[in-house]
Design goal:
The complex is a heterodimer of chains A (about 325) and B (about 325).
Chain A: E1 4-19, E2 24-40, E3 44-48, H1 55-62, E4 70-75, E5 78-79, H2 85-91, E6 95-98, H3 112-122, H4 128-141, H5 158-170, E7 176-180, H6 188-205, E8 208-213, H7 216-222, E9 225-230, E10 233-239, H8 240-245, H9 250-258, E11 308-311, E12 314-316
Parallel strand pairs in A: 3-8, 3-9, 6-7, 7-8
Antiparallel strand pairs in A: 1-2, 1-4, 4-5, 9-10, 10-12, 11-12
Chain B: E1 5-18, E2 21-34, E3 38-42, H1 49-56, E4 65-74, E5 77-78, H2 84-90, E6 95-98, H3 112-124, H4 128-141, H5 147-150, H6 160-172, E7 178-182, H7 190-207, E8 210-215, H8 218-224, E9 227-232, E10 235-241, H9 242-247, H10 252-260, H11 299-303, E11 309-310, E12 317-318, H12 326-329
The chains are: A alpha/beta (about 325), B alpha/beta (about 325).
C-alpha cells in the first residue's frame, strides 16, 4: 500500500560567503549538506531541529523556492531539480506550502477572495464564477465563513489568518503540502485548533504532509515518521513512536530530554547539552555533533557517519552503531 | 519556610487610552511574591501578563497607558506613587528585568563590559576597576566561559544563549530582590532553553532572588516555578501551587489549556481544543470573560462577574462560579499565603 510520493536524494545547499572588494567567494555556508529521505503517500513526515539546522531550507528546496546546489528531488517519478522555471510552476499545482508567519505571508492589500483565487488563476483553473464559488467553499472547509471572502487579512486573528494560509495552499487541490512551522506563531489554545484542522483536511483530501517544526510535542502529535536534523544533516529518521520512545542518536536523546514537560511531579535526569550549535560556515570535521556529544569517540572527530538502517525502518547517522 | 512577600501587588489596574475609550489591559490583579520564590505568570497573548510586569517596573508608556488603580508594594514601599527619580534607583537595583529578545535588549554599539559596568557604577557606586572586576565575576557566575575576553566583545559576537546569559548577569549584578523574566527563553532553541532554565533555578537558590517568570509555556512553569498565576483577558483566573494547578486545575480555561498541549511522551488520538479566540481587550464588559469559550457555561456566567473563590487547598483560588461554594463547604481551614 505504501507508495513513495517524494524521494529526496543527496540534497545539498551551499550558500556562498563572499568577501573583499571584488566579491570573491571566500567560503560557503553548508545549510543543507547531503540529505536523503522519502515521503510515503498519505503520511506526515515531521522534520525537527534547532535553528540553523537547515529544515526550512530543505522545505524551500523541495518547492524549488531555493535552487539546490546538488541532489535530486523526485516527485511522482519526475526530478524537479531538472525542470525549467515554467515547468516547475506547473508542478507546484500538486505541491503547496503553508508558511509560519500568518501576518507576513498574506498580502495586506488583497481581500481574502483575491488571495485564494490567485493560485487558481495562475494554474488556469475554472471560470471567474466557478473560482469565486470554489473560494467560498474552501473558506467553509477550513472553518471560516463564505462572507469572510470580502475582508482583508488585518481583520482576522492569527489563528484565522493561518486558516486562510491553509485554504490558499489547498485551492489547487495539491497532493503534497509542505508546512513550515505552521503553528509556532499561535497561542496554545489556537494551535490545537489548527493542528486538528490539518488532520481533518489530510483525511478529507488524502494529503501528504511534510511538517517542519521545532516543537517536539507538536511534531510527535501530527507525524507518522520524524526526521531529526542537525547542522544541515539528517541524523535520525524513523516512525514517530520509535523515535520518541527509543531514540538512537545522542543528539535526539539530548533534544528530547531538553523539552520542558508540563508535569511538576516528573523527576528525570536531563541530559543538558553544553555549548552552542557550531557555525554552519565552519562545521566540525567528522560527525557535526561530536563537539557536544557525551559519547564522542576518536572516529567521530575524523569520519562523517552515514545514515544507516540500524533497525528495520530506523535510520541513524552515528558511529556508535557501526 | 518563611513567607515574607517581597513584592505585593494589590488590585492593580492598568489601562490604555485608545480611540474606543479607556481599555483595561490588566484588571484588578493581585498577587505576591515571597523571598526566594519562583512565581510563574502564564497566559496567552493579550492576557495582560507583560503589561503586569511593565507596570511593576513603571515602564508603561504614559500616555497612552496609565496605572489606573491599585498598589505595588516592594517591601512595603508603594511604587505606584514613587517618583521617577526613586524608580530609577529601584530599577536594576532592587527589581530587575530580563526580556524575551536578547538580541534587541543589548546595545550593539557598546561592549558587554561597558553595559554591565554601567549599572554597577550607578547603583553600587563602584569605581571603574572594581566594577569591571565585579562584572567579570558575574559573567563567570552565569556560566560564560572566557569571561575576561567576552567583557571586551560586542553583542553581535555572541550567540543567542550567551546573550541571554549576559542579560541575566546584568540583571543580577546589583543583587536585586526581585527578578522579572518576561519570556526569557521563548526566542531560544530547546537545548539552550534547558541550559538557561537550569541556570535561573541555580541562581535563585544561590542568591535567594525572587523570580517572576512570565511565560506562555506551561512546560517551563512546571519545570521551574513553585507557584503559578494563570491570566486570561486581563484577569487572574486561577492561582495556586504548581502541583495543584497541574494536577487538579479548577478553572475551565486552565483545564483546556493543559489539555491542548500535545504531549511529547504519548500520542493522543485527537487534541482537545478550546473553541473560539481570545477576546479583544475591553470587549467583554459584564460576566465571566471566558464564558463565550467555556464548555461549562451557565446563564449566570454571562451576567455575573465571578470573584476569586477559595478551593480549599492552601493558596489555591479560582475565578469561576462553578467553584463558588467549594472552599466554604470544605472543612479544612484555608490558609492564605
Amino acid at each position: 500500500m505504501t507508495e513513495v510520493l517524494l524521494k529526496v536524494d543527496g540534497l545539498k545547499k551551499y550558500f556562498p560567503i563572499t568577501g573583499g572588494i571584488l566579491g570573491k567567494q571566500t567560503g560557503s555556508v553548508k545549510a543543507v549538506d547531503d540529505i536523503s529521505f522519502w515521503v510515503n503517500k498519505g503520511e506526515t513526515l515531521g522534520l525537527v531541529g534547532e535553528s540553523g539546522c537547515g529544515k526550512s531550507t530543505t522545505g524551500r528546496m523541495l518547492m524549488r523556492l531555493i535552487d539546490p546546489t546538488e541532489g535530486q528531488v523526485v516527485f511522482e517519478g519526475k526530478d524537479l531539480v531538472t525542470l525549467s522555471d515554467n515547468e516547475m510552476r506547473k508542478a507546484r499545482k500538486d505541491m503547496q506550502m503553508v508558511f509560519q508567519d500568518p501576518f507576513a505571508s498574506l498580502n495586506p492589500r488583497h481581500t481574502v477572495e483575491k488571495i485564494l483565487e490567485e493560485p487558481l488563476i495562475v494554474h488556469g483553473i475554472g471560470t471567474k464564477k466557478e473560482r469565486k464559488q470554489m473560494v467560498k467553499e474552501m473558506l467553509e472547509v477550513v472553518g471560516l465563513s463564505s462572507y469572510h471572502a470580502k475582508r482583508y487579512p488585518h481583520q482576522f486573528s492569527g489563528g484565522q489568518r493561518q486558516r486562510i494560509g491553509i485554504a490558499r495552499a489547498l485551492m489547487t487541490r495539491p497532493k503534497l503540502i509542505i508546512a513550515d512551522e505552521p503553528v509556532s506563531a499561535l497561542d496554545v489554545s489556537i494551535q490545537s485548533q489548527v493542528l486538528n484542522l490539518l488532520e481533518d483536511l489530510q483525511k478529507e483530501f488524502q494529503l501528504t504532509y511534510i511538517f517542519i517544526a521545532h516543537d517536539l510535542g507538536v511534531v510527535r502529535h501530527i507525524s507518522d515518521r520524524v526526521g531529526v536534523m542537525y547542522l544541515g544533516r539528517l541524523v535520525e529518521i524513523t516512525e514517530a513512536d520509535k523515535l520518541y520512545e527509543k531514540p538512537l542518536h545522542p543528539y535526539t536523546r539530548a533534544l528530547l530530554s531538553a523539552v520542558p514537560i508540563p508535569d511538576p511531579d516528573l523527576k528525570r535526569d536531563q541530559e543538558l547539552l553544553t555549548g552552542d550549535i557550531p557555525s554552519p560556515a565552519n562545521p566540525p570535521q567528522g560527525c557535526a555533533f561530536h563537539t557536544r556529544c557525551k559519547e564522542c569517540m576518536e572516529i567521530c572527530k575524523t569520519d562523517r557517519p552515514v545514515l544507516k538502517e540500524i533497525e528495520p525502518g530506523h535510520f541513524a547517522a552515528c558511529h556508535l552503531y557501526s | 519556610m518563611v513567607h515574607a512577600p517581597v513584592l505585593d501587588v494589590k488590585n492593580l489596574k492598568t489601562s490604555f487610552i485608545t480611540k474606543d475609550g479607556e481599555i483595561p489591559a490588566v484588571d484588578d490583579v493581585s498577587f505576591s511574591v515571597n523571598k526566594g520564590e519562583i512565581l510563574g505568570i502564564v497566559g496567552e497573548s493579550g492576557s495582560g501578563k507583560s503589561v503586569t510586569s511593565l507596570s511593576i517596573m513603571k515602564l508603561i508608556p504614559q500616555p497612552p497607558g496609565k496605572i489606573a488603580g491599585g498598589e505595588i508594594l516592594l517591601n512595603g514601599e508603594d511604587l505606584v506613587h514613587a517618583s521617577e527619580r526613586r524608580m530609577r534607583e529601584i530599577r536594576g537595583n532592587e527589581v530587575a528585568m530580563i526580556f524575551q529578545e536578547p538580541m534587541t535588549s543589548l546595545n550593539p554599539l557598546f561592549t558587554i563590559g561597558e553595559q554591565l559596568v554601567e549599572a554597577l557604577k550607578i547603583h553600587k557606586k563602584l569605581g571603574k576597576k572594581a566594577a569591571y572586576q565585579q562584572a567579570v565575576e558575574m559573567l563567570k557566575l552565569v556560566g560564560l566561559p572566557r569571561a575576561e575576553q567576552i567583557i571586551r566583545e560586542y553583542p553581535h559576537q555572541l550567540s543567542g544563549g550567551m546573550r541571554q546569559r549576559v542579560m541575566i548577569a546584568m540583571a543580577l549584578s546589583c543583587h536585586p530582590r526581585v527578578l522579572i523574566a518576561d519570556e526569557p527563553t521563548t526566542a531560544l532553541d530547546v537545548t539552550i532553553q534547558a541550559q538557561i532554565l537550569a541556570l535561573m533555578k541555580d541562581l535563585n537558590e544561590k542568591l535567594d532572588t525572587a523570580i517572576i517568570m512570565i511565560t506562555h509555556d506551561l512546560g517551563v512553569v512546571a519545570e521551574v516555578c513553585q507557584r503559578v498565576v494563570v491570566m486570561y483577558a486581563g484577569k487572574i483566573v486561577e492561582e495556586g501551587l504548581v502541583q495543584d494547578i497541574f494536577k487538579n486545575p479548577k478553572h475551565p480555561y486552565t483545564l483546556g489549556l493543559l489539555k491542548s498541549i500535545p504531549d511529547i511522551r504519548d500520542k493522543q488520538e485527537r487534541l482537545y481544543s478550546i473553541p473560539g479566540n481570545v477576546p479583544k481587550p475591553g470587549s467583554i464588559k459584564v460576566g465571566c470573560r471566558f464564558a463565550a469559550r467555556c464548555e461549562f457555561v451557565m446563564d449566570r456566567c454571562l451576567s455575573e462577574d465571578p470573584e476569586l473563590y477559595e478551593t480549599g487547598r492552601p493558596g489555591h483560588t479560582v475565578r469561576c462560579l462553578l467553584h463558588e461554594k467549594e472552599g466554604a463547604a470544605d472543612d479544612r481551614s484555608t490558609v492564605k499565603s
